[in-house]
Amino acid sequence: MPKRDREATRARLLEAARLRFAREGYDATSVRDIAKDSGVDATLIFRYFGSKKRLFDEATAAHAPPGLLDGPAEELVARMVRAVVLHDWTEYGGEHPLVAMLRSSAHEDTRQRIREEVCDTYVTALRDLAGGEKTEDAELRAELLSAWLVGIGILRSVVATPELAKAEAGDLAPHVAAVATALLGRPMSGLPKDGGSEG
Q1: Of 31, 18, 28, 23, which Cα lies nearest the Cα of 61?
Q2: Fewest CB atoms within 10 A around its CB: which of 29, 66, 109, 157?
Q3: For 194, phi and psi rounded to 5 degrees?
Q4: Model confidence over 14-37: pLDDT tens digits?
Q5: Which domains, ranges and CATH numbers included, belong to the chain?
């Protein structure tokens, strides 16, 4: 098989796996389902990825969006909201890849990945804004804000509660700014105040 065809097939398998894992979790997703969705033989999954577990790890790999930690400190929370809550995650079934991992969190290694994803990227950055190690409860306040943002994302994309599902950036802005400012102990800004979802 030509290299271009192999790359296209591999990409198709990853796309199908992202959708399946996001919707159904690891245990409820079979290699045959992914292969069928991709229109290929299931043996190709093992050829390209080695195992279902390695396919899951690659399909649900979520790195911090470029530029998330760059820019004014007072706009970090706004950038996180855009990345986690308002971003268009179509390739993951419309949900942040973290949700796929949450659906598979019966596995300890997946729980560890979730901890690393949330703590290494989001909690650490928020803790630094809250005073870093100089403030005794900075870590707790950073984790509280992270939990709140993840909860918003889940209610919006998975549960689809009526108001959050239709809320735009401008609807969320004053509330996000108020809670973030209170928890971090410094003014937060950056979300547009005139509506308009960003993806």
Answers
A1: 18
A2: 66
A3: -115, 25
A4: 989 988 888 888 889 999 999 999
A5: 3-59 (1.10.10.60), 73-184 (no CATH)
